[in-house]
Amino acid sequence: MTRRKKEARSTRAVGYARVSTGKQAQNGISLEHQADAIKAYCEAHGLTLVELVVDAGHSAYKQPLARRADGRRVCELVRSGQVEAVVALRLDRLFRSIQDCINTSMAWDKADVALHLLDMGGQAVDTSTPMGRMLMAMMAGFAEMESYAKAERTRDAWDYKRARGQRLGSKPPYGYRMADGIAVLDADEQETLDVIIMLRRDGMSYTKIAEDLTRRGYRPRGARWHPTTIQRILNRTSVQ
């Protein structure tokens, strides 16, 4: 059956929402935001949301979508022909590697299943169109390139200090963790860092950001979030 014939009736869709930590899942705000956005998008675009899959409290940093329990459910609905569209808030909710993104989306495209991403740089992307597929591939590539670049910059800085005999400190910068003597990306902290940057760009004060992170259930390294902690984290970014 062609996509044109399918669109003669309401397109069936599965929504996918994910958070990375148990506290975020218990708090539910992040999941609620994703769920509300998915439902509103489906209603506005004539999609029938047959199921909303919620991946609560599991990090997707190293696991392909099909290997995560809730991700398998999405893939099963696609494989069995029960849906013609997959809807998620952002690319990083579904995938954490360009290989998984491209392989999965290509398989869905062959099955005539479109991927709808609601917030790709402030606009929605629908991979049922050639332009949508191109934009998604480009964004996936840029996202992974930036991830590797961040890790490379951190490793270079630490290698430089080590070569000069400088003290490395007991902890890597926020957003990273130590593994075999080098700093590597920490998926949960990277997600929290994205939220901190977003809130600051929205004009929120350090104090309000600390309160908001506490309310949402994002886990600090210490006992609780402090405004000075937020400021120190942001001082390492381009956002002040």
How many H/I helices? 10
CA(first)-CA(last) distance: 53 Å
> Which ranges are low-confidence, i.e. pLDDT below 50, for 5 or more consecutive residues?
1-8, 22-29
From the spread of the alpha carbons, the general shape counts as globular
Strand order of the largest sheet: 2-1-3-4-5
Portion of residues in beta strands equals 15-25%
- Report the sheet with the most strands, covering strand number, pairing sense and barrel closure: 5 strands, mixed
Number of strands: 7
Question: How much helical structure, as a percent, in the residues?
Answer: 40-55%
In short, what is this structure?
The protein contains 10 helices and 7 strands.
Explain the overall architecture.
- The protein has 240 residues and is an alpha/beta fold.
- It has ten helices and seven strands.
- Strands 2-1-3-4-5 form a five-stranded mixed beta sheet, with helices on both faces. Strands 6-7 form a two-stranded antiparallel ribbon.
- The protein starts with a helix and ends in a 5-residue tail after the last helix.
Could you list some keywords that capture this structure?
51% helix, 240 residues, 7 strands, 17% strand, five-stranded mixed β-sheet, disordered N terminus, 10 helices
Which helices and strands occur, and which strands form pairs?
Blueprint: H1 3-6, E1 11-18, H2 22-27, H3 29-44, E2 47-55, H4 69-79, E3 85-88, H5 91-94, H6 98-110, E4 114-120, E5 123-126, H7 130-163, E6 176-179, E7 182-185, H8 187-201, H9 206-216, H10 227-235
Parallel strand pairs: 1-2, 1-3, 3-4
Antiparallel strand pairs: 4-5, 6-7
Helix pairs in contact: 9-10
